[in-house]
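User: Structure tokens for this complex, please. No commentary.
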Amino acid sequence: MHPFDHATKLQPLAQGAYKAETSPVYANMVGPFGGVTCAVLLNAALQHPDKLGQPVALTVNFAAPIADGTYTVTARPARTNRSTQHWVMEASQASGVVALATAVFATRRPTWSAPEIQAPQGLPAPESLARMPNVNRTPWIKAYDMRFTQGDVFSGFDGKDYPDSRSCQWLRDDPPRPLDFAALASISDCFFPRIFLRRRRAVPIGTVSITTYFHADAAALAAQGERYLLGTARGLKFHNGFFDQSGEIWSHDGHLLASTHQTVYFKE
Amino acid sequence: MHPFDHATKLQPLAQGAYKAETSPVYANMVGPFGGVTCAVLLNAALQHPDKLGQPVALTVNFAAPIADGTYTVTARPARTNRSTQHWVMEASQASGVVALATAVFATRRPTWSAPEIQAPQGLPAPESLARMPNVNRTPWIKAYDMRFTQGDVFSGFDGKDYPDSRSCQWLRDDPPRPLDFAALASISDCFFPRIFLRRRRAVPIGTVSITTYFHADAAALAAQGERYLLGTARGLKFHNGFFDQSGEIWSHDGHLLASTHQTVYFKE
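Assistant:
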């Protein structure tokens, strides 16, 4: 079993209730990597017998650090319409609620479709770039193969403020794993905190809320397979303890698979 | 009482439970303007006696049309930490849940702060621009004074596809009203659906999920007062029944007050 599937496995306790367990492979500085928590909460809806359609939107609020070990996850379809379904998910431990989420699922049908924002053009192929070094980094970083064309955060650490937090990178699971909604939800949280790029040093941070919009169906994700995805991200504003950042996950051939936004606590 | 305060008034039923009522001033094609629903749900947390700090993030999922008349709103602080608080809000009618929301509140303190994205420069003053005509439009549009410098949606309706959905506009409540969090949450939903700008005609749409990040405290919002805000927005991708759009609300003097993202159902 791939470590990601192990880390996001849910053991059913009752309808809409599951036991989950943190994985050392995806450990972060404090608690697990948030992307895996997003995947676990999405899985709780994906595996529910009343599920309708596929994910369109996912918001996860990180309420408290998840302690290493097991936790309980619940998923409730709060409203099911003809072609859309609204979910509420919660993760909890003895300390109380540790994460809250909502999701919108939908049965999609073919319509007029068009991109608007465009993927960067003319980038070097991922195979021609060096992988970001991950020694002495928090464990989850080793679970992703990241190759930057811009904003390789740690290599620029000189403590001198920089005005631009944009980054552009190829990335995929390590070991490679076929893409699905859970993996895409997790990869959407792979962008390093933009304050690291502005301050050019690590500062204490914690995402408080992340929202991801999905622009592909399961078949399109399966077509991406194990190939490198392209990730682009930038910060919007840093203000009195919180900043927000927006990112995009593109397929290997330039289709937008997900757009993702988050607001992050920081201490400075 | 200003019509917005009337439309977002909550009558306490019990701790964390309120009665709300739709207002004809903010009626939309089907049900109320979503911005007012965002404001009502945020108010339910803002008025809760256990509230800590000020809003940082708000996500509202529109689960079903709200029928004209009264509805019930609940707000529950799911987790209260030292400086952050996580909320779950729900609106319901006899038909079931009509809207779901989560919010993060926080006690902010002064830190290193910096903008990154910048407001458009050199725009004409709002007083020098014509107000967008609102005759024969859905009622809520009359509750906002909008003056476009780019992407004045309805004037461009010729049914010919256009590749760019960007817009830039001054806007404020009509009649003017001092800015606060509830008003900012509502104004964040004022951007017309980007598909109208791409298709250059109206098509059936409905926002399914909106997320707004707040970049100002109550004092900064009060300092904006009744002046015109600047709103900028663009679409990201239109695909098989859903598209997403991102926007920014800037103060009269170019400070980012909120960034906002939504995904929208469309029928084409």
